[in-house]
Amino acid sequence: MTTVAMHSMSHQPLYVQIKETLKKRILDGVYQPHDRLPSENEMMNAFSVSRITVRQALRDLYTEGLVFSAQGKGTFVSKPKAVQDVQRLEGLGEAMTPKGYQASARMLEIAECRPAKKVQEALQLQKGEDVIQVKRLRYLSQSPVSVDTSYFPLSIGRKLLGRDLTGDIFPMLENQLHIALGKADIRLEARKADNDTAKLLGIESGEAIMWVTRLTYDTQNNPIDFEYLAFRGDTYQYHFTVDRQKERER
Description:
Elements: H1 14-27, H2 40-47, H3 51-63, E1 67-70, E2 74-77, E3 82-85, H4 92-96, E4 103-113, H5 117-122, E5 131-140, E6 143-153, H6 154-157, H7 169-175, E7 181-192, H8 195-201, E8 208-218, E9 223-232, E10 236-239
Parallel strand pairs: 3-10
Antiparallel strand pairs: 1-2, 4-5, 5-6, 6-9, 7-8, 8-9
């Protein structure tokens, strides 16, 4: 790594200057995804700063999602993430195609089955009622991004049998089955990928994934689709924008 002079007269702290220098190199392609960054010692020498300063710069890059660390191996450039702006209820393709991504799906399984208690309660089914389970591997620009497992009441799910489910299901529900979609309740959490999910997503078992639970309702507030979406944590990101409304004047 070549020596880089930090600007002592700059109003920015040294760690911010280092972070911005490294960030520019990442965004300009000098450092490619999965490239190893110079070691802490190399950066200390190149920037003429302390280890604490280098680590603060790396922490900020990690917070911004630009790098990741591997214990005992160093710091590496992250793969750019596809970002879905969650402002309205959309399927993966509806959200990402306008951003230049090609969305597709591979069917893994579709079957009638007895649901787990959580699925039964979410879809407001009677005990003993079956559902149609649809399990698919979703791709963005031919790269696997999520494993989607969806559950539908039989009145809806049976109508999906034999249909082409390689695209978004939401438009099919609206345009072909004439179900007016209303709202969805979405919950996100971090989980470790099990063996089957990891193999499908092309990651190591136990690696972190973004686990999304989504319950979709029609405009009459009837639950019609309960889903578990397992996203690769290094390739996909949900982005929310929320407002804090002022209290109304009394």
